[in-house]
Amino acid sequence: MTHRITKAVIPAAGLGTRFLPATKAMPKEMLPVVDKPAIQYVVEEAVAAGLEDVLMIIGRNKNALANHFDRVTELESNLEAKGDLDRLERTKAPSDLADIHFLRQGDPKGLGHAVLRARRHVGDEPFAVLLGDDLIDAASPILPKMIDELEKRDATIIALLEVDPAQIHLYGAAAVEATDDPDVVRVTGLVEKPATEDAPSNLAIIGRYVLKPEVFDVLEHTQPGKGGEIQLTDALQELAADVEGTGGVYGVIFRGRRFDTGDRLDYIKAIVQLAVERDDLGPDLRPWLREFSSHLE
Fold first, then answer.
1. Is the residue at 276 inside a domain?
2. Is 198 within the bounds of a domain?
3. Which intervals hold domain Nucleotidyl transferase (predicted)?
4. What are phi and psi of 46, to 5 degrees?
5. What is the pLDDT of residues 85-94, one digit of tens each?
6. CB count, 10 Å around CB of 113?
7. Are 149 and 184 in contact (CB under 8 A)?
8. Which residue range forms the structural domain that includes residue 44?
């Protein structure tokens, strides 16, 4: 590897239909998790891994994303005049996080198409893709390990999570072989949302990828799959075959805490768990939760 990875791509063009009517006028990525929108956690994760050049692939009615990461000088001046320095710092933080760019996806042709749209910005460099629905606990990051593995193996790296076999039909599933590292497997095949009896394992693909630029050539000729969309999973399946010496695909098994904020129940759990752990909210929230839960028994 000749390039240290510095670029992250965040596809954010989805409609958020599971959260209607809340997402009728507001992007799902802007739904708050405690007091920050979900998308800010994702950008913070990228920056913590050294990825300070962030490209968001957006769709129509997503201007709120750009506004959130922009400066609001009138609000900042108002807070500064009031001496409210804590809120001032939190207000300025999103615009100081990274060099953030926005690109319209245009036609909604799926995740693979969204990644392909990043080709001109990324160029001939490896890069990371972070899906906004997956919030990874900052205490157990996975991107640094994935980046290290790409540089070590010169291969495409995906994040995998062990799930209940009864739930594997909700994910892409990986067929794998062991390596010398118990947290890293070689991926030999991928199946998008298989029936439980057809799943090659209970290792599910989650929304973190560290990709070599060769993925763009594969995506260029990837035909639409399920739902008539260009599936990133189909391109990864071709790369896993390593037919042209692309290095293959490896998976890093994630053993930390993850929240699927695209699911309503998991979204609520994320808010409660993160709030409970905060110094400013936890001391009052924890006893209230104990009292509240006692009435449910």
1. no
2. yes
3. 7-274
4. -60, -45
5. 999 999 999 9
6. 22
7. yes
8. 7-262
